[in-house]
Amino acid sequence: MDKVAIFGAGDIGKQVLLNLGNELVEFFFANTIEENYVEGILVISYEEFLKQRSSVHVIVASTKYGEEMCLQLEDSGIKNYFVWDEMVSGLFSENRMWTFPRYNPVYTNEDWSSRPYSLVRSFLKRDFSAYKKIVIYAYTETSSLLLKLMKFIKKSDDVLAVVHPDEAEEKTLGCLIDQMDCLLCAVRRDDNDICDIYEHIPTITTIDLFDIAVFITEFHSKKARKYRDKYKGRRCFVIGNGPSLSSDDLDKLDRNGEITFACNKIYNIFSKTEWRPDFYFLTDVWVLKSATKDILNIVPKECSFYNYAFCNGHILWVDEENIIPIYNMPEQDSVDRMPRFSKDISVHHCIGSSVTYTMLQAAYYMGFKEVYLIGYDHFTESLKKTKMCDHFYDSSKDNLWDMIPEYTKIDNHIKLNNAYRAARIAFEEDGRNVYNATRGGHLEIFNRVDFDSLFEGGK
Q1: CA gap 160, 158 in Å, rounded
Q2: What is the pTM of this model?
Q3: Domains along the sequence of the chain with CATH
Q4: Which of 211, 215, 395, 445 could form a disulfide with 391 if both were Cys (CB 3.0 to 4.6 A apart)?
Q5: Helix or strand (DSSP H, E) at 91
C-alpha cells in the first residue's frame, strides 16, 4: 500500500508515528509548522501536501481540531482519510499498548524488555488489493476499527461480513466459505481455532493480524537463509534423547553419511560414538541453565540453532558463523488445538512443547523430503508414575518437576501430540513425509518404519 501522511505534528501525531512506525510514514503536514522534523520525519505545509496528495493516505491526528481538519481536507476534495480519534487513542494508549491488541514480544536488551506492535501497523503493512470478498473475524472492540481501516484503503465495498468470536462463528463462516477469498483474523490464537482450520483451504488466504514476525526484518536470520532448500529432495534423521537411543545406531548413521539433527543434552553419548550431529538445536532456557558449559562445548558439523532470546537476552551471546539465532513466535499452547508450523525459520519458528518441533520446521525449511525420527520413545506412563521424562542417559538429576511444574505434566504431552500432528500435516500437504524409526516406544502419530531397513545390507 501507499505510505501514510499524518495531518498534525503534535502529541497525537507522535502517538500515531509510534504505532505505525517510521517505515510507513512519508511525512507530517500541518497548517502551522513549528519544527521541520518530528522524530526524524519531515514536516511540510498543507499547501505542499496538496501537491503530493495522490501518493499518500492521510491520517488526521488531532482531537481538539480534528473536525476542522476533516472539513479542510474535504474542501480540498480529499474524502478518503482515517481519523485517529479517541477510540483509537484509547486502544493504543500507553497503558493498553502492552495488553491489547496483543503483540509478539521482541527482546531488545539484557532485561528482556519487549516492544509492542500495533494492530493498525499490522493491517497497513498488508496488501489487500487482490481480494474481492473479505470476511473480518475480530473481537467486537476491534471490528469497527478494521471496518474504518478498510474504508481508509478503499476496500470497504469488498468486505463480505464481520464475525465476532462470541457468536456462532463456525456456522457463520461455513456459510461464507464459497464466497470469500480472504479471511482477516484479529483474534488471539489461544481463543480460537479458526486460523488453524482456514489456512489449510487453498482458495482462501488467511491473514492473522497478530502474525507480525514477517515484518520485523531486523530480527530475521540472514544466516539461516543459506539453508533454504539446500537439501531439497534428500532425507535426514532427527535424533531424540529417549532411552531407546543407542550409540550403535548413531554409528550406523555416521558410516552411511546421513544428515542428522540433535538437541539438548545429546553430548552425554559423545564418549561412546564417533558420530556428531550436523545440526544442533536448543530452545529451552531451563536446559541451557542446567548445563550451560557442556552445551556451549557442543560443536556440530554444520551449525547450531538457538532461540533468539538466548542470544539477545545475554544469557548466551555468541557471534560465530556457526551459531544461528532464530526468533520464536510466541503463542499459548493448548490441549485443544494444534500449534502453527513455520515454513520459514529465517523469519521465525513456532513453539510446540518440544525442541523437536523446531527441528522438524528446520528440516522442512531445508527441503528434506523424508525425515526419520529415532530415539522418540514418547512415554506417557513414566510421566504419571515418576513425573520424569526418561532419557538414554541417567536423567534422575534432570528432574525439573519441582522447578517448572508444567515441564512434565500430562497436558504438556498432549500439546506435544498436537505439535506432531501439525508437523505431519505440513509435510504431507507438500508431498513430503515424517516417519518414526524409533526402536519401540509409543509414538504412533507418524507412520512406522524399521530403522535397519533404511540401509542397504543393514550396514
Answers
A1: 6
A2: 0.79
A3: 3-84 (3.40.50.720), 119-215 (3.40.50), 220-458 (no CATH)
A4: 395
A5: helix 86-91
